[in-house]
Write a structure and sequence with these properties.
With 471 residues, the chain is mainly α. It is 75% helix and 0% strand. Bound molecules: protoporphyrin IX containing FE.
Length: 471
């Protein structure tokens, strides 16, 4: 592996200092949100075993849960992915950012929305049970403004490209921002916020926040980072385009699968199931494309951590999304609806896929921007604690949730299902501790890649000679 590719890139002057400052600032603030929001997640996990622990008004489960979910979604994952999208857009288009000022304004808006949203939830101001829309609507308007600014800046950057084609990553990232502007507007329009219409919009918003925002942003990062690390083109550009369009065709209508057996029209629920099955097409197509790009190089996973993070992210995408298709059937929902299996699923996808994609993208690209790598120990600790922790988390809740569902189907007293769940909650807490500790190590790694003293890890770019040897 070449040791100094990152430093050489710096010396060649390939690196745009303003872009580096922006990319670093997005990453640092996102990391602070990750630490905060998952500390809350850990506290929540232990509240299941000890509900009276820290039960003061401001520390109740009802206030803290949406602080955790909105903090991880909008503070951590959104800000980190937008920082990555800016870097990918500028580098893949061979240009500077359209406007550095807009990038800074966007960063402020994202953070102002996340801070005021957190404070509002903590003080008891919220929009009730509108999942991932719990922030009062004026605050969601600030988030929408951040999206608009980002869309403008990303599109402006891609419009300045020196090549004729728009590289695949930018299709994914630009459209993610545009789609999410639409979704966020629909989620605010007052005439959709009553009765069954509100239920339909909840399904539309909550699932599209995942499928039309985090998913395409993370996939766009894969399309840039994997070829970059491996110094080889993506296996099939056409398959990437195909997965892009099928994701757009099938995703927007599947959110109704969260409301099977509800008063929503039966045909609408069936439509959501059909589109959930159709999602196999972009998911398997996209995953195959990434894995085939890595073909012959899987031996590198034992030492090249940026690639290993991305590999886990791809597997998380494949397994988590396929699990989503299976969960959407009525027969499966009869077992898993309303219980902890769903929490396992959301952490398999948001953690196993999106988080690992972000970490892989950052470990692959941030050193190229700053010329600083983290330490080898820090990379290994982060990877293994996050992987083992999330594995324990997801497996324990998947088994526990299934036990819960079987108890309900057998008509056992509800309290029996609560008692049966107890050991699985403890295991979730154990997994959560490892995950949280890994985030502390990640913060240390971010510090070393940005403002701190660089570590001793190799450059994320695999040297061609080694690539040839491994192939
Ligand atoms: C230390 C790591 C983490 C721990 C201990 C943790 C813990 C929890 C807990 C206890 C809940 C509430 C579950 C319930 O209501 O039954 C929850 C919900 C949730 N968390 Fe986390 N979490 C962690 C990391 C994350 C991250 C990084 C993300 C996203 C990037 C995330 C996304 C979510 C989502 C989407 C839900 C709602 C799940 C649903 O309703 O289906 N979590 N988490």
């Amino acid at each position: 592996m070449s040791k100094d590719a990152a430093v050489q890139a710096q010396e060649r002057g390939d690196v745009d200092r303003e872009l580096t400052a922006i990319f670093s600032a997005y990453t640092i603030t996102a990391t602070l949100w990750l630490l905060f929001a998952t500390a809350i997640g850990l506290l929540l996990a232990f509240k299941f075993g000890a509900p009276d622990f820290w039960a003061a008004k401001y520390l109740t489960f009802g206030r803290l849960r949406p602080i955790h979910t909105n903090g991880t979604f909008y503070g951590w994952a959104s800000i980190a992915l937008v920082g990555l999208a800016y870097y990918v857009a500028a580098r893949s288009c061979g240009t500077r950012l359209y406007s550095k000022r807009l990038a800074w304004i966007g960063l402020w808006l994202f953070n102002i929305a996340a801070v005021t949203g957190t404070i509002a939830l903590e003080l008891g101001y919220n929009e009730g049970d509108l999942e991932y829309r719990e922030w009062p609507w004026p605050i969601r308007l600030i988030f929408l403004a951040a999206l608009v600014v980002t869309a403008w800046n990303l599109i402006g950057t891609v419009a300045r490209r020196t090549s004729e084609d728009i590289y695949l990553s930018n299709w994914y990232t630009m459209s993610a921002v545009l789609w999410t502007c639409v979704i966020a507007i629909v989620a605010i329009l007052p005439w959709y916020q009553h009765g069954l219409g509100q239920v339909a919009i909840s399904g539309y918003y909550m699932h599209n926040a995942v499928g039309m925002w985090f998913t395409p942003l993370a996939l766009g990062v894969f399309y840039y980072a994997i070829p970059k690390i491996m110094s080889r083109p993506i296996y099939s550009y056409a398959l990437g385009v195909f997965a892009f369009w099928t994701n757009l065709c099938f995703y927007p209508l599947l959110g109704g699968h969260h409301f099977l057996f509800s008063p929503l029209p039966w045909w609408l629920q069936t439509t959501a199931i059909v589109f959930s099955v159709a999602m196999i097409v972009p998911v398997w197509g996209g995953s195959a494309n990434y894995l085939l790009t890595m073909r012959g190089r899987f031996g590198d996973l034992t030492h090249a951590y940026p690639l290993a993070f991305i590999f886990v992210g791809v597997i998380g995408y494949l397994v988590g999304s396929t699990q989503g298709t299976v969960e959407a059937f009525r027969s499966m929902q009869a077992l898993w609806h309303f219980n902890n299996f769903t929490i396992g699923h959301s952490h398999l996808t948001m953690y196993g896929f999106v988080n690992f994609a972000i970490w892989g993208g950052l470990y692959a690209l941030l050193p190229l921007a700053t010329g600083k790598t983290p330490g080898r120990l820090g990379l290994a600790l982060h990877f293994w604690m996050a992987l083992v922790g999330s594995f324990i988390y997801v497996i324990s809740l998947s088994i526990g949730g299934t036990v819960q569902g079987l108890d309900w189907m057998q008509g056992k007293p509800f309290i029996q299902s609560v008692t049966d769940m107890a050991p699985y909650y403890v295991w979730r807490g154990v997994g959560g501790i490892l995950m949280f500790l890994s985030h502390g190590v990640f913060a240390w790694n971010v510090w070393r890649m940005t403002t701190g003293v660089a570590g001793n890890a190799d450059s994320p770019i695999l040297a061609p000679a080694e690539a040839g040897a491994a192939a």
